[in-house]
Amino acid sequence: FVKRMIVGVIVSGVIGAGAILYINHKPTEAVDQFVLSMSPFVQVDYDKVSSSLSGAVSVEGVTMTLPSFSDPIRIGSVGFKLPTFLDLLSLHIMGPLQIARGQLPKSITVFADGFQLDTGDDYMMAMFRAMEADAAENNGGTIPTRSEDPLGHCISRYGVSSRDLLELGLDRMTMSMRYQVEQMDGEIGASLEFEIQDTLTIDTRFSIQGRLADFASGRTDRARLMRFEIEGETQDITKRTWDRCETMGVDRDIAKEAYITSFLAGLAEGGFVADDRLIEPFRAGVIAEHQHFRVIGDPPQPVDIQQVKLYSADKLPALLGVDYQTW
Q1: pLDDT for residue 40
Q2: 148 Cα distance to chain centroid
Q3: How far apart are CA 41 and CA 65, in angstroms?
Q4: Rg (CA), the chain
Q5: Which of 50, 74, 270, 324 is the most buried (most CB within 10 A)?
Q6: Residue 294's closest CA among 307, 302, 285?
Q7: In DSSP terms, which residues pair with 44 in a beta bridge?
Q8: What is the mean pLDDT of each run of 10 residues along the chain (327 residues)?
Q9: Rounded to 5 degrees, what are φ and ψ at 181?
Q10: CA-CA distance, 112 to 58, in Å (whole number)?
């Protein structure tokens, strides 16, 4: 018995060590292949790839440099997590047949932590220039100066510039993102957590009638939206925004009313016309400078996602059962 126990311990140790080496080697190999395939479009470097018996794989110390730019984009770590070690082992052999049979992990979490963007970096300046050109095109070819339209610049009517972000104390933005999708009984639960450090957090949750396997294979005709919730906190960026407007010579209350009008117009342009039941609490929250908000969608019956686009913009609030709260 003792000999068998010793042999069992040794065999288990060998298997465990082999598994650890395997799951550390395979992700590194896959990352290297991905980096090589992306080399014509972006240069990617990283410090190390780590994986664990809990089903997590992460790439740490990532830097990406875009063509024609010299300043790198830095990410502390990016990766994914599966429910179990066995799911991680079987991931590399998963193909269309396994997906069609529904042989997928019950959940997967994708994350990126410590995503840094510096306002003065060259790729950010290029983005600001593109936003300015787009705003000018939509404004007859020119953008008024701050002295000509301080209200418009205060509420970012003409986009966002590096100067705007610096005045709001956002010379560097450090972001994190975590996305999880999970198969439950006849439903798919999806959540997205997004954070800009010391500025903004948004948590989004969806419940969808359907199977992960259908989505993975591109079959979304059976998908039905059952419920969603979006909750956010703006921290003190709300106060900083209106303080900045006042330093530009714009009355605080006038700026808020202009922002409300501009925001609702943007929603309508994007295909969603809010009714009074939503506008009133939204307006009250902006006026009171609330830092928390929650959007709840509780449709009277599951909504065919593919048919949402067939409804007129003013019908969507009732179709989706949307409610808005702020505090």
Answers
A1: 85
A2: 36
A3: 9
A4: 25
A5: 324
A6: 285
A7: 64
A8: 40 43 62 81 91 87 93 95 83 56 80 95 94 90 94 93 93 96 90 94 94 74 90 93 97 97 94 94 96 96 89 94 96
A9: -130, 135
A10: 9
Distance CA 191, CA 320 (A): 18
> Quick one: pLDDT at residue 87?
82
Cα–Cα distance for residue pair 150/156, rounded to 1 Å: 10
Task: Report the residue count for the chain.
Answer: 327
Residue 136: CA count within 13 A, CB half-sphere: 10
The pLDDT value given to residue 154: 95
Gap between the Cα atoms of 132 and 317, Å rounded? 32
Task: Write the single-letter amino acid at 41.
Answer: F
- What is the pairing mode between strands 43-45 and 56-65? antiparallel
> Contact 241/263 with Cβ under 8 angstroms?
no
SS3 of the chain: the string is CHHHHHHHHHHHHHHHHHHHHHHHHHHHHHHHHHHHHHCCCCEEECCEEEECCCCEEEEEEEEEECCCCCCCEEEEEEEEECCCHHHHHHHHHCCHHHHHCCCCCCEEEEEEEEEEEECCCHHHHHHHHHHHHHHHHHCCCCCCCCCCCHHHHHCCCCCCCHHHHHHCCCCEEEEEEEEEEEECCCEEEEEEEEEECCCEEEEEEEEEECCHHHHHCCCCCCCEEEEEEEEEECCCHHHHHHHHHHHCCCCHHHHHHHHHHHHHHHHHHCCCCCCHHHHHHHHHHHHCCCCEEEEEECCCCCEEHHHHHHCCHHHHHHHHCEEEEEC
Q: Do the beta carbons of residue 29 and residue 59 sit within 8 Å?
A: no
Residue 3 pLDDT: 42
> Up-side HSE of residue 184: CA atoms within 13 Å toward CB?
10
The token pair at 268 is 């309508």
Cβ count near 228 (within 10 Å): 19
Quick one: CA dihedral 130, 132, 135, 137, positive or negative? negative
Torsional sign, CA 127, 132, 135, 141: negative
Of the candidates 51, 40, 48, 64, the one whose C-alpha atom is nearest the C-alpha of residue 92 is: 51
237 Cα distance to chain centroid:
19
Residue 12 has what pLDDT? 39
